[in-house]
Amino acid sequence: MPFKPLLCALLLSAALPAAAQTGGSPDADAYKLGPREKLFVRIGSWDSTTQTYVSWPDASGEYTIGADGFVSVPMAGSVKAAGLSSEELGQAIIASIQDSLGVTTNLDASVEVAEYRPVYVIGEVQAPGAIPFAPGMNAIEAVGLAGGFRRPEMTFLQNERSALASLGNYEVLRLQLYARLAEKARLEAELASRDDLVPDKELATAPGGEDLLRREREVKAARDSEIKSQMVQLSSLEKLLTQEIERLGKQVALRTTQIDLAKQELENTSALVEKGLTVASRRSDLQTRVADEEVRLLELETARLTAEQRVVGVTQDRSDILNARKRDILDSLSLADAEIGQLRLKLKTEAALYAEAMQSGDGFVSTRGFGAPMLELARRQGGKLVSVPVERDTALQPGDVLEIRLPLPDEAAAPALAGQISGQQAAATPLPALP
Description:
Blueprint: H1 3-11, E1 38-47, E2 52-55, E3 61-64, E4 70-73, E5 77-80, H2 86-101, E6 107-115, E7 119-123, E8 129-131, H3 139-145, H4 158-191, H5 201-204, H6 209-274, H7 280-358, E9 374-381, E10 384-388, E11 401-405, H8 414-424
């Protein structure tokens, strides 16, 4: 079939500018935030009196960076976010809250990117426009999500375009499948309280599988550290409450002894008053003293009861945290299994569509305008768009603009080009079949 070697010459042997790889998924420390990104902000403080972490639910939540580069957070007001890292923005929010409210306590703010800026694919693609950014996305994946290459001066048969689109979709789905398998391995390790992840054979031998597992190990370590920190806090609070209960118990015993002595003295004084050996005011003073001591005893017993109730509350909090974590893991695991099943079904569908498309077709209707696709990448640096060398596997960043250009040869060169292509067909390698 003449189409296969010709399509290989166009797509697999395209001469693109050589370039060093650029950073793909934004690094948490180096990545700078930008307009139109959605953030999840969590704000709270440590209460040294109750020995608990107090969250600020009115200030925590999801926010979007505006076109002016500022994000509006309750109690902090409008804070400049564009150009800052997540850690720098958290510090700026804390400083703004402290300035506006006069808060002197130590606040804590964590900022996470909930949705990155999109990547823009323009030029000779089937569906130019904004593509949702996903960490690890490279240039050829973005082209696939934009519908694949388009040639205004070259007509493909419909089945050949379908083959190209299926090939791009298959690669994207396969990356998504590997990511879900890595997530499932992490969830299973958390559920079984294992120290390390145990991936299945498919993920262990997959390209880039170790990178996915490393990221999931980092996620697991962070989640385990969070739970451990909460357990340590609860244990410390429980220890302090136990010590407080012991002190209150000793004070109750001492106060009871003092009341008994005061009552004995009151009884003796009352007998003397009856005999006229002492004044009645002495008896009134002792009665007042006994009443005061009994009130203080009641306060101590109430304080001890309150501390005992708080100990019970700490035990319940510990159980609630662990149960909530288990429910979250089970829900996430169920969702991951469902997504893995859907991705496998979609992979089979794309493979079948690709195989069907490659079984028929006569190649190109016209070789006029044949040329290798050229990829150009524009990235904002220092407030300006700069050109970045790009290859098909160059990793993208949020806000990148990827332009696809298809150069057209001169009309006089078209016959010679067509003859050159015909001479290369025998040596060209056909497109690989999907597994």
